[in-house]
Amino acid sequence: MSGLSAQRQAIADAVWARLNREADAMVKTEPMLAGFVHDAVLRHGSLERALSFLLADKLSSRYLSALALAELFEDAFASSADIRQAMRADLDAVVDRDPAARSLAIPFLYFKGFQALQSYRVAHWLWAQERAQLALHLQSRISEMFNVDIHPAARIGKGILIDHGTSVVIGETAVIGDNVSLLHEVTLGGTGKESGDRHPKVGYGVIIGAGAKILGNIRIGEGSKIAACSVVLCDVPSHSTVAGIPAKVVGKPRTAEPALTMEQTFDGDYAI
Predict the structure, then answer these.
(1) How far are the Cα atoms of 121, 175, 183 from residue 162, in angstroms, in the given order?
(2) Domain identity same for 135 and 186
(3) Which one of 14, 75, 184, 257 is CB 3.0 to 4.6 Å from 164, fit for a cystine?
């Protein structure tokens, strides 16, 4: 094992060890949840296996059994180091940015934004394997279960926070860079019946406020802030704050990566 691989493995093991400690503490604090926590975390040997069984239990149906889905998720996690790395970065992002996430165990067990995102990552893996029908079926189940609709062809980086998750829509040709935060009811959509490359491209470190609609093949520059309920129809320069319908530049964030601070007001922004 190379030095870098060993370092990544140590980080992975640390995340899993911490999750187990927190799960064990949950059982001691609330014995009524012992069976659930044991099945979701404590009986498994790795973060990947635990997440596979947790998501499979939620997404199973009369057509896809929980066992078959768990095996599918495990195959995807085992086959892709990128998914394994992104999974941990996403979990860290939730804990770092969401004050409601007081431990790793809380978002892992309960936050549908995190769970929907990891499920999408498997659907995207299937899409890349040219298993489009199963990927689309999984997208449908994710939407039904979590109320988060992400096309499996969309490309999403790591360190992503989808806060709350409800009614988030991400279209087929959308691209999201690393360390982006999205709140509920965000849409990265098209503008009509156009085909081809038709969805937004969101840069590194962007925060997108609740209810914002970003439409068309436009670029949201890195380090930008999109105000809640804005409708964005044109490119956004890097390190800009935009607001309104249609959205216009109203300032500049004081930090290079506003997604990390989760500051959604304009009080701290530089005036233009």
Answers:
(1) 14, 15, 6
(2) no
(3) 184
CATH code: domain of residue 59: 1.10.3130.10
Instruction: Give 206-247 pLDDT, tens digit per residue.
Output: 999 999 999 999 999 999 999 999 999 999 999 999 999 999
User: For 192-219, b where at least 16 C-beta lie within 10 A, e where not — what string?
Assistant: eeeeeebbbbbbbbbbbbbbbbbbbbbb
DSSP per-residue string spanning the chain: --HHHHHHHHHHHHHHHHHHHHHHHHHHH-GGGHHHHIIIIIT-SSHHHHHHHHHHHHH--SSS-HHHHHHHHHHHHHH-HHHHHHHHHHHHHHHHH-TT--SSHHHHHH-HHHHHHHHHHHHHHHHHTT-HHHHHHHHHHHHHHHSEEE-TT-EE-SS-EESS-TTEEE-TT-EE-SS-EE-TT-EEE-SSS--SS-S-EE-TT-EE-TT-EEESS-EE-TT-EE-TT-EE-S-B-TT-EEEETTEEEEEB-SSS-HHHHT--SSTTSBP-
Shared domain check, 130 and 8? yes
96 and 178 housed in the same domain? no
- Shared domain for 161 and 106, answered yes or no, is no
The pLDDT value recorded for residue 267 is 76
Bridge partners, residue 244, by sequence: 247
- CA-angle at 103, arms to 169 and 30, nearest 5°: 110
Which range marks the domain in which residue 243 is found? 154-272
CATH number, domain at 212? 2.160.10.10
Which parts of the chain sit beneath pLDDT 70?
1-12
